[in-house]
Amino acid sequence: MSYAAFKMMHWATGIENCAAGFITQSPADFAAHIPPIQADDMESEWPAKRRFGPIPNLVVSAGNVVEVYAVRIHEDDGRSSQLSSEPLTGGVMDGLYGARLEIVCHYRLHGNVESMVILSAGSDDRSKRRDSIVLAFQDAKLVVLEYDDASHGLRTTSMHCFEGPDWQFLKRGRESFPRGTIVKADPAGRCGGALVYGLPMVILKAAQADQVLAVDDEPTFLGPSASVRIESSYIINLRDLDMKHVKDFTFIHGYIEPVVVILHEREPTWAGRISWKHHTCIISALSISMTLKQHPLIWSAVDLPHNAYKLLPVPSRIGGVLVICANSIHYHSQSVSCSLALNNYYTQMENSPDIPKSNFNVELDAANATWLSHDVAVFSSKVGELLLLTLVNDGRVVQRLDLMKSKASVLTSAITTIGSSFFFLGSRLGDSLLVQFSCENSLPSSLHAKEEAADFDVDTPFPKKLRRMSSDALQDIGSSEELSLYSTAPNSSESTQKFFTFTVRDSLINVGPLKDFAYGLRINANNNATGFAKQSNYELVCCSGHGKNGALCVMQHSIRPELITEVELQGCKGIWTVYHKSSRGLSVDNLKISKEDDEFHAYLIISLENRTMVLETADDLGEVTESVDYYVQGSTIAAGNLFGRRRVVQIFSRGARILDGSYMTQELAFGVNDSDHYSSTDSFTVSSASIADPYVLIKMVDGSIQLLVGDPSTCTISIHMPSMLANSTDSVCACTLYTDKGPDPWLRKASTDAWLSTGVSEAIVSNDGSFHDQGDIYCLLCYESGTLEVFDVPSFKCVFSVSKFSSGKTHLVDRSVKEPLQLPQKMKNNNEASVLGKEPLENIKVVELVMHRWSGQHCRPFLFAVLNDGTMLSYHAYLYESVDNVSKNEDVVPPFNSFDPSNTSTSRFKNLRFLRVATDFTAREESPNMGTPPKITIFKNIGGYQGLFLSGPRPAWLMICRERLRVHPQLCDGSVAAFTVLHNVNCNRGFIYVTTQDFLKICQLPSGFNYDSCWPVRKVYICFYYNDFVIFSTS
């Protein structure tokens, strides 16, 4: 593949802007119930210790990347710590033992975001309206975005451009400006403002609820649940108001009409004239009348320090604005003002009263701030120090300002409050942190509160700490003055007796900014590698960060596993590991197993060309082929566990065996009773199989389907031929089974009457008294014609059907839905067009199909498909309940096979949608002969990560991190023929794979690397800034 200009190999990670708003849900959606993250396998009956109120989304921008996150909280119910799938940091605070950021949607734009703001729908927690996002781009372009439930992503509601010949007068002859466009929004959501070209201010008037707008040539009704949209805009020329040098502006609280406060200078000064002219800044408050387009001055303040650079609006009940200067902080409102000097460099005006001085010296130039409550703000200074500013007040009038030290954190570029218990520290120089805070009116009784706040995840091994939490925080943990994030400074005023505790809950890794970089060979490089495998021999070492966040980043474009051992193995076609949970009694070792995931594998099954090998996976791998009852006379098609891991099922070309450990308990043969011995054997020869306890789905060579149904009470299976598929005219090219487990199976939400479904999960009690939850089982079939159908098992009633699945649509919708997604015309064209280039659609077939939902309450299923040309399709499921079913459906083809319109009832998954996920990866080969076909293997825990491995000519890891697919190729060994997981004494959470060069390798994921990034990265924190470095060769 060639690129005309360049290819972006690693996207920006340094966060420049962040904001919080109700993007995906309105505040009213949280009013009825605040859903915590609970255990997967039991329902919570314990009440929450604290209601945290509505938690808004987090929106961040890094270069040209925009991401929207949801904050998922983990409440402490005494059991969650044992059942959580991910290690969490920070201990228990206010009834929470953890919180994490989960991706909702992310986009790569065609320009860098210069400024960002949330256009709020108001501060009413009962409001059903959602917030919108306003982005500013160079030179003077504004875009307003809202969340669309139908497409499960952001869509543009309006675009505003003040460039070109018609707007040339705004530049006043200038072509370059010291900074880009700045956008701010009214706290009540009535309007927004943008400062373009340094001086003109654009006012964006927001449309009111119950108003009709024309969007996309169609009238749009802004109901109570719609997002905030822009109705119109006009320009205020600040030069006409005698404002020449604007530094910042903001909208303040507490007025009937929007009021904007502008920080500007009438006559700028510079360092050589400081002694003569030093108080040159002014703030002016303008009341914005958008109906009359008038903006009278209502109050102002003069003689502010020349180094004033930022305004911070004070929340309601107090109101006003804070003016942030390098050496002082000033509070101003329409009636009251007060100040606080921060150091000895503050210069006071002549003949002015003395102002209070802080108890310690600090500089606040290049600082960022947000509010923890209506009267307490947190500042992050240029050295990464957290400060708490308290507005001492009597309920409305501010009497004085108190500043106290907290602890140190990362060097921040942006900061925002998320709800009432979290704030986010965005950083371009280090890892960004999600911090939980708690406020108390008295000191904690524990004398060791500081130490407890500083010790994050004490019981977690250090490699997991390095991977799961910010290493910037780890650096701070090692210092007594760093990120304990705790303040106990007493104060004499009663209103200031608030004590805050902080703990880091999550972090987003950052590898920038890069001062220098070099590349060289890895330690375990293969000198004989050629082609793509040779690329994996090199790694990139970068000077990253700044100051105390300085680090060396070791980055690798592909994963090179840590090799434990390897043996030569010729002719391998597939490998599987299986468990064996004995029903004849529990040994002492089994009693020590507290989790199902901690159980070791019992056997390794290796399928060769003409035989099958069986090995025990105890302390050492030992071959037991001759002493077990497995089918070893030929190759194995599939193997796995049934009946709660009490049995092993082995599928081979003409039959299946059920084994209790090494002893066979049942054997089935396919086609032995057929009377026509001269008929083709394709209908009795197994091509592939999918196992989902207690079912086994088998696809024959001729494209027919058979289902093996298990009986948990007797641990036996029987053959079942679905009647609806017996007379099918179209053969199946790929099939799979999907298990929807948990106390609240996810797919049940896709139907409005899911309680009538025949696939309700049942708790199975076997004859040995063991308890097993089989969950809801579904069968996915993809036909030669390209149609995808989902059936309920075992009734085989079609619940979801999509035509032209192999064409790679952007969205998948059930054919029975009368109203499809209301997509823009461009997206509709992409949804209907083939993504397979010039390849005819009839030649494209699905050869591999997998659907899986990993652990977690808020996790949604993924759907993966591999086409015969190597293209991989990845989809993420979501729910959307259509309001009006009046529109026409998309390209509805005549129903075939099991799709019967008469059976189209509400039991179908009408609310189920799939969104295609871009992966920037292809498994196709350059040559026409692809060789080893790609095969998908699901893993739930390899080195602490979950996802899937794609074997074949271009092997790759697809890891699920924060509900996002992270694709990391594995190029070191070339093509991979087979892959499986392995967990035993000598290989903890490892894996086995077989290369096409006939080598079987037992490996683990390299420790210390973070795979939640574009490339696997390992950060080595040095706590100072690099200027240059050189890599010396050992040769």
Automatic annotation (TrEMBL):
Superkingdom of the source species: Eukaryota
Pfam families: Beta-prop_RSE1_1st, Beta-prop_RSE1_2nd
InterPro entries on file: Beta-prop_RSE1/DDB1/CPSF1_1st (IPR018846), Beta-prop_RSE1/DDB1/CPSF1_2nd (IPR058543), RSE1/DDB1/CFT1 (IPR050358), WD40/YVTN_repeat-like_dom_sf (IPR015943)
Residue span, RSE1/DDB1/CPSF1 first beta-propeller domain: 100-441
Residues annotated as domain RSE1/DDB1/CPSF1 second beta-propeller: 561-1005
Signal peptide range in chain numbering: none
Name this polypeptide is given: Cleavage and polyadenylation specificity factor subunit 1
Source species of the chain: Apostasia shenzhenica
